[in-house]
Amino acid sequence: MTTELAGEPDFRGPATLEVAGRAFEVDVDLRGRSQPIDGIFRWYGRVRPHAELRDLLGESGNKTGFLSTETGSAAVTVGDIDFWGRYRVQGRSAPPYSLETDLHIHHQEEFVTDPAPADAALNRALAMIEPASLREQVTTDGGYVETLRDVRAPNPTMASRAMNNRGVAAIYEKIWRPFGVSMMGIGGLSMSAERAKAVTDLQLRGSQRVLDVASGPGNFTKFLSEHLTGDGLAVGFDISEAMIARAVRDNRGARAAYVRGDASHLPYAGGAFDAVCCYAALYLVPEPFRVVDELIRVLRPGGRIAIMTSCELGSAPMRTVVGVGSGRMGVRMFPKNQFTDIFDRAGMTDIEQEIRGLAQFVSATKQ
Ligand SMILES: C[S@@+](CC[C@H](N)C(=O)[O-])C[C@H]1O[C@@H](n2cnc3c(N)ncnc32)[C@H](O)[C@@H]1O
Q: Whose CA is nearest to atom 2 of ligand 1?
């Protein structure tokens, strides 16, 4: 085991280590991250020196067991001992500590110590809502623009239930999304590479206004906003209360604000945005073609659109296997030419498509 733990851990504190048929109260330092290649969350760390544990395991460790903290538990591999007498430990997938703690530290350190710029971004997002009469009815109490007061996000499929779940929203950016990407076989394209691709495809710059539709916890919105200057604004738009709450908590900023609404009826004037993005969502929504029409409608002439969605595989037997599995979860597979044809029929130009595994990235310019 060669894992290193430089810098601040994600979790530091007491834990119970069950190994070789015994339980030990230990102190641990743990941290984790999703690997860019396979998208799997791996966590690792150290058990502080513990005499009884050392008596049992000796120098080499090399045992599997169970590690629990107050907020979670997980299978663990206990490795060898380091120079300071600490056992190395590691595991994969859900870690034995709450990622809430991790995100909380992250939040405090990096974001919005002065709330005023984020509030200003929220007010600018509010000012964009059309018709103007709707603006009078919406609230901003939760730190986002709420256009669907008293209307809960619908829960018709397994996939939509997951998107509306607070637990999933909490782990979405770090675990769920990277895992989903690896399942779709987006070979070698990490989420940071996907974000960079979105910025390039949207040709983001200066004081543009960009709409990130189905923004989830804002994992793209904040990044897009960081490529804008001056009065630039990235609006993350999503229907899930859980996702929007997470976005406000983790990913608001001086040029990033969030709106809760239904992408089938975008509350914006035609041509309101310089760029429109919709990643990893069209395959989940019940009316994907209506949503695409809306994306095109709110884009100004000359503006750029970029979407990432599912793509059917070429061979008929594989299409059937993947189609049945995804259909059960509430995920739709689109033929290769579906969106290029839609953009073409809408008179768009510079249409580009990149297919990776079960995913397709399509971008275009509105005329
Ligand atoms: C898989 S997440 C995508 C998040 C982010 N764009 C990404 O690429 O990781 C899909 C999002 O679509 C949202 N969504 C589903 N139906 C929607 C609708 N009708 N209007 C707005 N958002 C919707 C869900 O709430 C969920 O947050």
A: 216
Please report the atom of ligand 1 found closest to the CA of residue 216.
Answer: 27
Cα–Cα distances in angstroms (integers) from residue 243 to residues 153, 168, 195, 232, in the given order: 11, 9, 18, 23
Q: Is 309 in the pocket of ligand 1 (CB under 6 A)?
A: no
Over residues 251-266, mean pLDDT: 97
Backbone angles phi, psi at 143, to 5 degrees: 90, 5
Q: What is the pLDDT of residue 107?
A: 36
Q: Indicate the pLDDT class of residue 263, thresholds 50, 70 and 90.
A: very high
Cβ–ligand 1 contact at 262 (below 6 Å): yes
264 lines ligand 1 (CB under 6 A): yes
pTM listed for this prediction:
0.71
Atom of ligand 1 nearest to the CA of 164: 25
Kindly state the tokens that stand for 14.
Answer: 């007491």
Query: In this predicted structure, what is the pLDDT of residue 167?
Result: 86
Beta carbons within 8 Å of 165's beta carbon, 6+ residues apart:
242
